[in-house]
Design goal:
With 173 residues, the chain is mostly helical. It is built from six helices and no strands. It has helices at 2-38, 44-67, 72-78, 83-114, 127-131, 133-162. The radius of gyration is 20 Å and the shape is elongated.
């Protein structure tokens, strides 16, 4: 199915982005630590860059966790339920999440556009670039939510046609 392939591709993109942002953040932090301790120098621009990459890392990690249904509250309720009830609650959770992610897209674009000309003091990076991760990961999580909903509906249909309950976790990759 197309939505599943797109979701998997976006997940791989998020993993790559997570690796890049973690590397950039780690390198900038190591340079800052060495600069302070061995050369008595401080790099304020690297501090900002590490903070900005942490923001990107957080939102990218959230998209990866949502794809795998590894957010803390997502499985808590569903794991206590069985059968059709669990599937219905799972679908409702994903619909609510989808609405939230749509708000991420809408207000994230607004925030990024409003701050595109605001430049960070030390590094000179436009703040709109920092905030751009919000609508991007919002879009990615909308695709993941649609994939979850479709898989849950298919599983519910399979359960009702087979006459037996099969409660397996939606495959993430």
């Amino acid at each position: 199915m197309l939505i599943s392939k797109v979701s998997r591709g976006l997940d791989r993109l998020c993993i790559f982005l997570l690796i890049v942002t973690t590397t950039v953040m780690s390198v900038s932090l190591v340079i800052m630590i060495f600069g302070r301790n061995f050369f008595n120098m401080s790099f304020a621009s690297l501090e900002e860059i590490s903070r900005f990459t942490f923001v990107w890392l957080t939102f990218t990690g959230a998209a990866i966790a949502f794809k795998r249904k590894e957010h803390m509250g997502m499985d808590f309720v569903v794991s206590k339920l069985r059968g059709k009830t669990a599937t219905v609650v799972e679908i409702i959770q994903d619909i609510v999440a989808l609405i939230l992610f749509a708000l991420f897209i809408f207000y994230g674009i607004e925030l990024a556009v409003l701050n595109i000309e605001v430049v960070s003091l030390q590094s000179g990076i436009p703040m709109g670039y920092v905030y751009f991760i919000i609508p991007v990961t919002g879009f990615i999580m909308v695709i993941h939510a649609l994939d979850h909903i479709i898989k849950s509906i298919k599983r519910k249909h399979t359960e009702s046609t087979n006459g037996k309950v099969v409660m397996d976790k939606v495959s993430s990759i």
